[in-house]
Amino acid sequence: MTAAKREAGKEAQSRTGKMKLEVYADRMSQPSRAVIIFCKVNGIDYTERKVDISKREHLTPEFAEINPMKQLPAIVDGNFKLFESHSILIYLACAFPGVADHWYPANLFKRSKMHSVLYWHHSNLRRAADTYVTNTTILPALGHPSNQQAAAEAEKLLFSSLSKIESFWLKGDGPFLLGRNQPSIADLSLVCELMQLEVLDEKDRERFLGPYKKVQQWIKRTRNATSPHFDNVHNILMKVKEKLKNKPLMEANHGGALDIQKRLRSRI
Amino acid sequence: MTAAKREAGKEAQSRTGKMKLEVYADRMSQPSRAVIIFCKVNGIDYTERKVDISKREHLTPEFAEINPMKQLPAIVDGNFKLFESHSILIYLACAFPGVADHWYPANLFKRSKMHSVLYWHHSNLRRAADTYVTNTTILPALGHPSNQQAAAEAEKLLFSSLSKIESFWLKGDGPFLLGRNQPSIADLSLVCELMQLEVLDEKDRERFLGPYKKVQQWIKRTRNATSPHFDNVHNILMKVKEKLKNKPLMEANHGGALDIQKRLRSRI
């Protein structure tokens, strides 16, 4: 055990006697799913507090007490409150001694590379996927005007992001990001992001993912490495996907699809 | 000294005998400036390798060997290459034992809060300021079409980001982010981002910053805490600001202003 891990262990010991960890989440939000899957895979004892985005519960004064940014996910661990999913994943990996090193390595060089993936994610894949899905699927389904220029720019960024994952982040010998042999918080976070593309029209999704064989294999590997939790936590997204298949989005401006679409809007 | 800091110290010792740290940067890029100022303030011995964005040097095959994402800044420390400015700042704070703890605290809880500021920055202040400056100032000056809808959305996000800094991130007793008494890498990174607004029309800049008194004081404090390096490193930006005053951007589609504006485009 490295000194950094021991340090984390000591911090974790200060958790003894605290209330159980609380995770505020909506499973329709991709970073919420990443945090929930991480807790389940690592046997972290937690209580899931559902904040229903479709009911605008994330905008209530009560939730603002948990996260003033009114975004999901957020955690409360005793007196300690935290938001931003990557920060939460790093905290959990350090604060709970049972989490294996491969999720967030203690070694400075490996850890720094992982930070670069996580920051890259925010400015590239997340920005692209979120903007594209919002402007091509969510806003039209809600009957709201969408920004087609933003969608076109997001499409370019999404292709470029997938290409970078395929040719750079997955280029090492190992099957996971950065050529590692076991999954990290970066694999989990980025794969949960890509799962959001499931709500797109099937042909459109295939247009994005089809050319990237390594990306497809990596999604499967991350799913397998976190089985059965990955599928269980994505269950609600897959149900929505099935419903949308039978109710094309562009025609679904009212009724049930509206609620479904509100739920698609994730925040962090 | 905490165990985590000792661990960082050990990693740092493995640097002994390495080539001097190399920082690839263009001082017209806000994250490049943050990394350079950090090195100077902390007495880190480094060589600055200028990558001139206006000459598209960041797009050359030679620079792709340093950073395949073709973005600035990037560092090379011996055999170790790293990009994404927040990752670089965290690495430098951990790898160089002379860096005081307040820049990136070893304590897990303090460190986690700092991560949440840094990730928030990417999805909010950076995204807003970059999109706004690009679409209102850079693209028009280059004679390229700009996305006015994107600019309008960025304007809203920029006001909202400034409001969040004023009312939440600066709400503690201390004069810096998270109520701390001394500056961190988050202060440096966010303030360098806001300095990019200097290239806006003076009235427009005042429209954004005027309402936020704590933000204005915090910018001054961060500048003072990193004096004289802060002003020295921002010198080139201030020269551009002066030139632009005499050559309104909307009329400057050709000639010298074009080169100046190309230099404004930063990447990470």
How would you portray this structure in words?
- 2 copies of one chain form a homodimer.
- With 268 residues, the first copy, chain A, is α+β, with helices and mostly antiparallel strands.
- Chain A folds into 2 domains: 3-103, 3-Layer(aba) Sandwich (Glutaredoxin), CATH 3.40.30; 108-264, Glutathione S-transferase Yfyf (Class Pi), Chain A, domain 2, CATH 1.20.1050.
- Helix content of chain A is 57%, strand content 7%.
- Chain A contains 12 helices and 4 strands.
- Chain A has helices spanning 3-13, 30-41, 61-66, 85-95, 108-123, 125-142, 148-169, 185-195, 202-209, 213-225, 229-245, 256-264; strands at residues 21-25, 46-50, 74-77, 80-83.
- Chain A has a 4-stranded mixed β-sheet, covered by helices on one side.
- In chain A, α2 (30-41) packs parallel to α4 (85-95).
- The radius of gyration of chain A is 19 Å and the shape is globular.
- Mean pLDDT of chain A is 87; it is low at 1-10 and 249-268.
- Chain A binds chain B through residues 2-4, 6-8, 10-11, 68-69, 80, 82-87, 90-91, 94-95, 106-109, 112-113, 115-116, 118-120, 122-123, 126-127, 147, 149-150, 153, 164, 168, 268, and chain B through 2-4, 6-8, 10-11, 68-69, 80, 82-87, 90-91, 94-95, 106-109, 112-113, 115-116, 118-120, 122-123, 126-127, 147, 149-150, 153, 164, 168, 268.
- Chains A, B: It is an enzyme of class 2 (transferase).
- Chains A, B: Its EC number is 2.5.1.18.
- Chains A, B: InterPro entries: Glutathione-S-Trfase_C-like, Glutathione-S-Trfase_C_sf, Glutathione_S-Trfase, Glutathione_S-Trfase_N, GST_C_Theta, GST_N_Theta, GSTT1/2/3, Thioredoxin-like_sf.
- Chains A, B: One of its GO terms (molecular function) is glutathione transferase activity.
- Chains A, B: Belongs to the GST superfamily. Theta family.
